[in-house]
Amino acid sequence: MPKSRVTRPVKRYKADFIAGSAELAMLLEVSATPKPGNIDRTHNFEDLIYEHFIGSAVGIFPVLKKAALRGRGIGTLVRDAVDGSTTWQTAGNCHFGAILLLMPLCAAASRSSTIPQVRTNAIEIVENTTTADAVQFYESFRRVNVRVQEGHYLDVNDPASVKIIKEQNLTLRDIMRISSTNDSIARELVEGFPRTFRGAEMIRQFRKLGYDLNSSIVYLFLNVLREAPDTLIAKKFGPQVALEVSARANDALKFGTIEEFDGELIAQHINPGTTADIVIGSLFIALLAGLRF
After folding, report:
1. Which of 15, 88, 249, 268 is most buried by a 10 A CB count?
2. CA separation (Å) from 149 to 154, 181, 231?
3. Residue 180 lies in a domain
4. Over pLDDT 70: what percentage of the chain?
5. Which helix (H) or strand (E) covers residue 50, if one does?
6. pLDDT by residue (tens digit) across 271-290?
């Protein structure tokens, strides 16, 4: 008789490793310097400091692990992560965009054994979100102060918006699709995380070229910023300023004037926060893929 084949179990990413990679991605991003316009380990804002981001990242860890273990309920996970982020810090919103990226990615990683599978599963998770996810996502806005685009017919500050979501059976993916025209994080979720995974490959290339980890993160940050205007800047200062900052990021890379660029943005209180969120997502994927330092 022919010998029966023994099917070996697929080695999937473990929940602790997934959550640890996501937390570490947040810590590495905020620690990189000089990261033009944003808080890092060398400078703070008056109302927002480096330690706020450290506390936020650590507070989110239990929910990151829950996402990796549960693999569903993205809206509730986002809400719980927003709550967790304020466990030790009182500044409110430090990682909202990153949370929105990391929850489906962590859930996807728990079902995957390769990076391409993580992306495929994350796309499926977003596509299969529910109306309940959308309602919980809107609930999370009440927990922290998040800057949003004015004039949206589903105003996050209007309780009637939740009623509309329920009446129209809108899913979280529907909300992201509606928001994707003027929000880079929403666009990432709708389009299948293209910049997130491209950024992870960029990190790999920078490291392969011999750059240290800090420089690799700074170069990634500037490349992400130059390729598309930052959503947070556009919401605070208008789309033209966001375009100008992206062009300036390109010049800083081209001419090596990164520190001067950092000083300019800090002086004008212009912080590319959405760019930082995408960098966090990219670092998470890079760590899953084997980034070590």
Report:
1. 249
2. 10, 11, 9
3. yes
4. 93
5. helix 50-70
6. 999 999 999 999 999 999 99
7 lies in some domain:
no
59 in a domain, yes or no? yes
Res 6: pLDDT:
47
How many other C-beta atoms lie within 10 A of the C-beta of residue 91?
A: 18
Cis geometry, peptide bond prior to residue 194 (ω within 30 degrees of 0): no
3-state secondary structure of 43: strand
Domain that holds residue 254: 15-288
Q: Which residues of 165-193 are buried (b: 16+ CB within 10 A; e: fewer)?
A: beeeebbbbbbbbbbbebbbbbbbbbeeb
The number of domains in the chain is 1
Is 54 in contact with 27 (CB distance < 8 Å)? yes
Tokens of 192: 């299948």
User: Domain holding 275: CATH number?
Assistant: 1.10.4200.10
**pTM, 2 dp:** 0.94
- Within-domain flag for 226: yes
List pLDDT tens digits, range 70-87. 888 999 999 999 999 999
Question: 């990153």: which residue's tokens?
Answer: 98
